[in-house]
Design brief:
Layout (H helix, E strand, L loop, with lengths): L1 H4 L16 H68 L2 H4 L3 H15 L3 E4 L5 E4 L11 H7 L4 E2 L6 E9 L6 E10 L1 H8 L8 E5 L5 E4 L3 H4 L6 H5 L4 E7 L5 E9 L4 E8 H52 L12 H50 L3 H16 L3 E8 L8 E8 L4 H4 L8 H7 L5 E3 L23 E8 L5 E9 L7 H40 L3 E5 L10 H7 L3 H4 L10 H17 L3 E8 L5 E12 L5 E10 L1 H44 L1 H8 L5 H37 L4 E4 L1 H11 L1 H6 L2 E5 L5 E4 H17 L7 E10 L2 E8 L30 H11 L3 E7 L3 E9 L4
Parallel strand pairs: 21-23
Antiparallel strand pairs: 1-2, 1-5, 3-4, 4-5, 6-7, 6-10, 8-9, 9-10, 11-12, 11-15, 13-14, 14-15, 16-19, 17-18, 18-19, 20-22, 23-24, 24-26, 25-26
InterPro entries: GAF, GAF-like_dom_sf, HAMP_dom, HATPase_C_sf, HATPase_dom, His_kinase_dom, HisK_dim/P_dom, HisK_dim/P_sf
Protein name: histidine kinase
Subcellular location: Membrane
Length: 905
Amino acid sequence: MLMQAQKAPPEPARPAPARSRPGSIVRRLVVFALGLAVPILIFGGVVLWQFAGAARARLEADALGRARMEAAAVDREVASLIATLEALSLSNALQRGDVTAFRDQMQELARRSGLSATLRDPDGRRLIDIGPEPMPERLDGADAQALAGRPAVSGVVDGRFRVTVPVVRRGGEAVLYLLSFSLPADRIRNLLASGGVPKDWVMSVVDRDDRVLTRTRAPERFTGIQAPDDLRRASGPEGSWRGTSLEGEPLFIAYAWAGVPDWRIAVGVPEEALAAPVRASLVWFAALGGMLAAVAAVLALAFARGIAAPLQALRDQAVALGRGRPAPVLAGVPAEVAAVSAEIADAAQRQRERTSEREGAAAALRSETQRLEVLNRLGTALASELDRQRLGDAVVEAATRLTGAAYGALFERVPEGPEGPEHWQLLSLTGAPREAFTRFGLPRVTTLFSETFAAGGVVLSEDVTSDPRYGSHGGMPKGHLPVRSYLAVPVVSGTGATLGALLFGHPESHRFGSREAALVEGLAGQAAVAMDNARLFASVRREQDRFEAAVQAVRGVLWTNGPDGRMTNEQPAWAALTGQTPEQYVGFGWAEAVHPDDRAASVESWNAAVAERRRYTHEHRVRRHDGVFRIYAIQAVPVLDPDGAIREWVGVHSDITEQRTAEAALRESNEEIQRYAYIVSHDLRAPLVNIMGFTSEIEASQDDIRTALAGRPEASRIDADLAESVSFIKAAITKMDGLINAILKLSREGRRNFQSEPLAMTALVQGLADAQRHQAETAGAAIAIGDLPGITADRVAVEQIFGNLIDNAIKYLAKDRPGRIEVTGAVSDGLAVFHVADNGRGIDARDHARVFELFRRSGTQDRPGDGIGLAHVRTLVRALGGRIDLASRIGEGTTFTVTLPLRQP
């Protein structure tokens, strides 16, 4: 019997059978198939590489062919120009020295062909020059060749080249003249571009002096500079090599010689274009490899499926064993697999027996640990939850489960505040719909409830129907949830404030005891701490939301720095702008996102502002997260503690790129207008000079005309009409000359570079008034200069502005009262504001805008002037970064307001 009572010794553990992994079979078959495909891939790769090499060689040959073709085109073009000049040089007018007659032939050629020629004597002096730009009166190497009796082509000079032929006396060898075309280098560039060269290729023409004559890419940048060393060292009629372009781009370069002008035509093909066939070959190779790999994988999978099916069935049986399900022996499989399957089925049976034993023990453990799990989950929720609603739901649900209550509720006390007087509201409920409580309103102030709401302690009733504390209000209301067992615990904070109350009920009596009461009382203490935290978090969140709203209202990127000026903590706006991580921008790491040219100045000025504890303003370029540099204006101020110590710096970056771009475009437009005005006025003066000359000839011929008309009846009338016409022409010429001089003056002022310096404006304007005191006294006017703010600006421009305004005020004073002119000023919003006021005639409201226009004047024109003064003043004020405004009434006077920055850059 003893032997029978002893337990059998445990069976030795059997080694687990090795698993067959179908994936391993598939992998090996795929490797085998790929091994067969490798030779095919190698062969294909070699073929494609050869093809790519041939394509590259073809492109290099095309480049040399293009250089030859363009060299031939340039030869044809220059030869055509030489032929035109030689034909023109055969003119009979030149042979007999009639330069005037030859001028007509040159002008006819210019009209028909657009070619403007120049005729010079052998010493280089221009006899006829109808070109757009005058040719210099000096001889160079090309002219020396022409003087030797041969046509010559010069190199590039100021973006132009010259074709020259000698004019030789018939029957002799003496050179009478030099006949030339001076042509823009763009003529050759257009010839190159007309050949249809690929847009990423670059072609250059190098003249006889090894300078770049023109270029298909960026000619305005490189025309006239020395050619690269490789091209200057090139000799022979043609050649090729690998080098770099003038921009530093790697190229294959081929050149050919244009013999007529003695130029070299170079064609550059980017290495990127030459490498394109190689990349295409690699793509084809990759596609071929991918296709062969796919075919190999499909074949391997097909072969492996038949091998892996029995092993898959065996794996499924092992999975069933691991999950405790029945694992019957497999049938219709190889013997080796069947043996393993039988072992698995036997193991499955033994496992089910052991599982049954474990489940009995686990049921007992679950019953004991369930309560602890609820407490643990609730503790975690109370420690991490900051939302009052979710917090209340978690407490009520956990307490209801722990006490076995049918219903649980948490009432929250709402203190008196902006929303109204103190009141109680239902926060959380479980075991019943909210309407079951809310339709009865707040709990009645019975003896049973009042003790809990007054934080009097735990209230426990085994049966409220027989509890004398409950029946004082007529018992349970009709339709109320059936409650007999009742448990209530107040929720009180550590400061003694009542936060709420936990109430639990059950339709059966004697369901709650001291154990449940102690448990809920502990939960109420934890809930009080959590509710305090939630209310504190809500308060902090409201402040944070207010701060975030303020941040969003700021137009720009907001950031903060520590009191020492170093960037710390999380800076989400700066990180979003620059893409920097906290590790990258911490301290002065933010400067790495600033443009290298602006970095040192930004850090230096920032450190100076921090050291001086003053407001910081600056501008610099910042690299955005996408790599693009933008211009930002920075404003930063220190935030001070009550004791005056700096707590932190708060700053904002505002993107002003579009503003600065618009300002640059405006400056460029103004410069273009000024250049245009200069050119127009210059071109207008030429015909005016001719008119003046012809008018002088007419005046000189008046005596001859009188003699020719002597004795005729109409002689006196014709002589008077002629004299009157000549006087009208001379008056118009004088007026036109004044207008042209005014335009030239305005253009020159617009192009002048300003030199900023500190200006004591009171002394400066007083000096201007003193200079015009004689005119003022003559007009019966007094000039008063107030206390004016100093500025930093260009002295000449400021003197011209206020000198013109004072002169205008004197010129247009009223005749019926003494004149009074006052100049006052002040600083407003960081700008200097000056007023020049008079009590003169005044300006009609319709003319307030017109008086600033060129050649526009207002009112009676009884004073000398050309209508350019106020236009000049407005141009200067705008150039200084300011504005000018006008306020005036007829008969009362005029006030000009000039607003200027306190400091010019």
